[in-house]
Amino acid sequence: MDSLNQLRDIIQVDVGKRGLRTDPASNLITACAGDFASACRSIAEHPAAALAIVTGFFIPTATPPAGETDGPLGAIFLARALTPLGIPVVLVTDDFCVRAIEAGLAECGLRKRVPVVTLPTPAQAAGMTEIGYWDHFDKRKGIRTLTHLLAIERVGPSHTHDAVPAEHRDRCHTMRGRDITDLMSPAHQLFESAQRDGTIVTIGIGDGGNEIGMGKIPWDVIDRNIQSGGLVACRTTVDHLIVCGVSNWGAYALAAGVAHLRGKPLDASFFDTVFEQDVLDIMVEEGPLVDGVLGIPDATVDGLTWPQYAEVLTKIAAVAT
After folding, report:
1. Domain count for the chain
2. Minimal CA–CA distance to 75: which of 252, 196, 257?
3. Residue 131 lies in domain
4. Which residue, 48, 145, 159, 217, shows the most beta carbons closer than 10 Å to its own?
5. What is the reported pTM?
6. Which CATH number is 75's domain given?
């Protein structure tokens, strides 16, 4: 088995038992089996790759309500790994995640090298056309020519067909089916604009079916595999979709895969689990950020203990280094 497939298989363990493989024959994992490798190649083989990473998922039921730890930590890792490869990165998020991301970048020594774009608030976005929304981002991105647009653990709108209850069509949902459309900036518009334009490659990383990119998987597959999947399934598609057990894991593997293809494997320091936890500690404190499953400001991800979570980082290191 080649390194890219090894990396993919490491991150696709359904640790949260969300139903990624409920139907053994047709599920979220089998639907896009080749997309991890194609996403790695798309970035690694581009002669002038430049990447915008959109993240931030609001948890309204947390104490306090805040963005979750899954997504922003992976976005920081991608910036940390790709920037030394000569791939410019800009991070894009809502105002509720900006402080956490800036703190994470500072801890990694990247605050002056990686721009952070704050998306329009939901109220501001309501008064914008899709073109106006793109222009708001484009003027602030700090990268002259963007080649790739990536979403990691970023909610997107549901499907609009008759199988979805009318009041839930074209709405953004948590995994529990809570409507958070009015609490988050409609970042899916960036991906839909890029898809129509055709010059920017789009990538999605997600772990539950409700994230930007999951529209690449047929609605009935998500409905059949994920609890309440038909309700929460996102309709926004991407060119390459990485489905994994925890979205941050997808970022770790993607970074390792790109570096491998560039012939510059990441050194062991990138996989220091103590440092990774320190970065998360600071992001949780400064954000705050919350564990999306536990709903509290804790340096954990998706309800996993740190050893459970970090084990995958160690396994990726064994392949990547």
Report:
1. 1
2. 252
3. 3-320
4. 217
5. 0.98
6. 3.90.1640.20
